[in-house]
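Chapter review: from sequence to fold.
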Amino acid sequence: MKCPFCGDENTRVIDSRPADDGSSIRRRRQCDVCDKRFTTYEKVETIPVFIIKKDNTREPYDRAKIERGIMLAVRKRSIPLEKITDMIDSIEAQIFSLDSKEVPSSFIGNLIMDKLQQLDQVSYVRFASVYREFQDVDTFLHELQNLFTQHSPADPSKSDN
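The token string follows.
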């Protein structure tokens, strides 16, 4: 491993431990020339996955696209970055656990919506409005009504009023 500080290739591992959810290894390294320390991560190389878009075109899987969409949805919400990262890791794990080389974008969109709905309802509605391409206020209100129906008491006559 080449040292990022001096460029020398003589580095040694001084500590190794599992990282994330056990899917990668974090290694602390030290350069034998400049004595500086740095961290590397080792991950299992997965089979390439292609995403089948709505228009049936295919493109390579890109985690950054999921991150961008989720970060836009959670913008200005008080959600810890760790929870967001864990959610993205979980989505990615589900995608790669399919053992399929091609995954429909609709599957990924629905995964994201399910996870966002559990994490933060405002973020869920933001993402859904873009993902489902709401064309008018009525469609938006319908989605909100569905959300309220899912989270309302089973018997409205038993309210505290």
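Two observations follow directly from the output. Residues 50-150 form one domain. Residues 155-161 have pLDDT under 50 and may be disordered.
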